[in-house]
């Protein structure tokens, strides 16, 4: 392993600016009077230190160089504290130079009038240097401020772009304003019922906001602040959040009596830029919401059309059959033997059962969609559920041999027997409808560990790979089913019923046909069932 040693001069180069920046940051947090006292005290300290060093080193006879040395505190004070501390350093340096180094020493009397010209030149040069250094300092601070503002706006734009809802947009904007301006900030969002005022934790829950000014800003989409053309006595800064011709709300920034925000044009421009970013984000979210609502409306219309088409077709067919059979039975001139009458009665019965299954599925889906699916669970022998379901679909499976395999004892699960029976009926109906006449249907009951499994397998047309994940969707029907009647609700109801029982349903493509498996939590079999 190689160890890299950092030279001492690099340590100084890295750590000194960090120390200097921390000192400057701690200094800028002081109140303005305290900062002024600190600046002038620092100037006095630098002047005293320089005077002491020069005086103790006995540089009395090199007065030109001594005068030049007094320009150092001027440059430092101007660069660090500003123009007026630099001018103070120049004046103080002139007084110190005269008192300690110009004969007669320790007196402000001047023995040679030529020194007065030197004093004037020194003062002009010092004040000019102070002005230049202060100007450089001011420009550096402005550049740093612009860079900080640009970084804040960049971070804010990225965060607002990633925001997915209105709440996150508001929180992001308020956090950035608080971090940049170190003051209270609120956002008033325009609502149909009034104004929704938002704030970050820590800000006053009930700030002093002039409702009349806020209403004017939201109505006209213009700024209001102290000194503005309208509402020039406003205690806070009100910046509208608007995009194009729509006003979404307003920034409310500042504290009562704090007029520095309203009187500094760059702060107003920053808040306008932030308000524009927020308005763009809110406009984007509103557009996405409108698009989502439009998609929901289109999907609802599509589903409504599908429901009407399916129901009208599914109801019209058995109703037509029932009407024809009823008219034949009521026709006094028709000569029907007992076999024909029985056939017509069976036709009426089967059509009525078909309508009953359709209505049951529609009512079941309505209960599921409305959140009204209430389970009446009790321990149930799953063999009884399968037997009841087979009796209900006897007319559909008349042309299909049904093979039932069940262990002894049969698995028991805590279920709602009626709902689970409806789910099994739907699986058996699908198996019969999508299988050719004579194709068998296998029903298997099994216990696998802590699970009870009901499997219904047909030997029909099967499903394709891309349909495996869609067969349980509402109103979905394969393009290959042709004119086979159906609404596309049966498997959706099966999945909803199974999931309501905390179970799981899965589909497997077979060769040929399809297998559907319902997995439920099994209960231990009673002892009397084991001894039968």
From TrEMBL:
Catalytic activity: ATP + protein L-histidine = ADP + protein N-phospho-L-histidine
Limits of the Histidine kinase domain: 310-524
Source organism superkingdom: Bacteria
Subcellular location: Membrane
Pfam short name (any one): DUF4118
Keywords: ATP-binding, Kinase, Membrane, Nucleotide-binding, Phosphoprotein, Transferase, Transmembrane, Transmembrane helix, Two-component regulatory system
Enzyme nomenclature, EC number: 2.7.13.3
The protein's enzyme class: transferase
Keyword flag Cell inner membrane: no
Primary location class: membrane
KW Cell membrane (keyword) present: no
InterPro entries xrefs: GAF, GAF-like_dom_sf, HATPase_C_sf, HATPase_dom, His_kinase_dom, HisK_dim/P_dom, HisK_dim/P_sf, Histidine_kinase_KdpD
Signal peptide annotation: none
Transmembrane segment boundaries: 37-57, 69-95, 115-136
Membrane topology field: Multi-pass membrane protein
Protein name stated in the entry: histidine kinase
């Amino acid at each position: 392993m190689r160890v890299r040693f950092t030279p001492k001069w690099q340590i100084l180069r890295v750590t000194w600016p960090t120390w200097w920046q921390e000192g400057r940051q701690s200094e800028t947090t002081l109140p303005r009077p305290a900062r002024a006292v600190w600046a002038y005290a620092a100037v006095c300290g630098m002047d005293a230190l320089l005077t002491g060093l020069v005086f103790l080193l006995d540089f009395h006879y090199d007065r030109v160089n001594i005068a030049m040395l007094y320009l150092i505190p001027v440059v430092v004070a101007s660069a660090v504290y500003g123009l007026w501390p630099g001018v103070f350093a120049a004046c103080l340096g002139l007084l110190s130079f005269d008192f300690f180094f110009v004969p007669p020493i320790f007196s402000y009397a001047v023995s040679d009038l030529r020194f007065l010209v030197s004093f004037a030149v020194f003062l002009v040069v010092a004040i000019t240097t102070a002005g230049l250094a202060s100007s450089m300092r001011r420009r550096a601070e402005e550049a740093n401020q612009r860079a900080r503002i640009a970084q804040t706006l960049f971070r804010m734009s990225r965060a607002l772009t990633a925001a997915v809802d209105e709440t996150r947009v508001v929180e992001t904007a308020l956090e950035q304003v608080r971090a940049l301006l170190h003051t209270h900030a609120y956002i008033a969002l325009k609502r149909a019922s009034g104004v929704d005022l938002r704030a970050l934790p820590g800000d006053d829950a009930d700030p002093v906001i002039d409702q009349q000014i806020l209403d004017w800003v939201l109505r006209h989409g213009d700024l209001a602040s102290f000194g503005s053309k309208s509402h020039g006595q406003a205690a806070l800064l009100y910046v509208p959040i608007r995009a194009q011709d729509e006003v979404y709300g307003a920034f409310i920034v500042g504290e009562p009596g704090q007029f520095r925000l309203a009187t500094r044009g760059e702060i107003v421009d920053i808040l306008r830029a932030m308000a524009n970013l927020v308005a763009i984000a809110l406009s984007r979210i509103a557009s996405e919401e409108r698009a989502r609502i439009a998609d929901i409306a289109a999907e609802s219309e599509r589903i409504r059309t599908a429901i009407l088409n399916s129901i009208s077709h599914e109801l019209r067919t058995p109703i037509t059959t029932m009407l024809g059979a009823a008219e034949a039975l009521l026709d006094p001139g028709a000569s029907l033997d007992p076999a024909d009458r029985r056939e017509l009665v069976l036709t009426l019965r089967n059509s009525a059962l078909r309508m009953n299954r359709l209505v049951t599925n529609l009512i079941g889906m309505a209960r599921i969609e409305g959140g009204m699916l209430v389970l009446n669970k009790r321990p149930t022998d799953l063999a009884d559920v399968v037997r009841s379901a087979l009796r209900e679909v006897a007319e559909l499976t008349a042309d299909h041999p049904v093979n039932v395999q069940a262990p002894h004892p049969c698995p028991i699960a805590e279920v709602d027997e009626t709902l689970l029976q409806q789910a099994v009926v739907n699986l058996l109906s699908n198996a019969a409808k999508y299988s050719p006449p004579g194709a068998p249907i296998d029903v298997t009951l099994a216990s696998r560990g802590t699970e009870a499994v009901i499997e219904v397998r047909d030997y029909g047309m099967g499903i394709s790979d891309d349909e495996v994940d869609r067969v349980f969707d509402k109103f979905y029907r394969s393009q290959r089913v042709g004119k086979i009647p159906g609404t596309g609700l049966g498997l959706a109801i099966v999945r909803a019923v199974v999931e309501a029982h905390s179970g799981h349903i899965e589909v497997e493509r077979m060769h040929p046909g399809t297998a559907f498996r319902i997995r439920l939590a099994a209960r231990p079999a009673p002892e009397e069932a084991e001894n039968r």
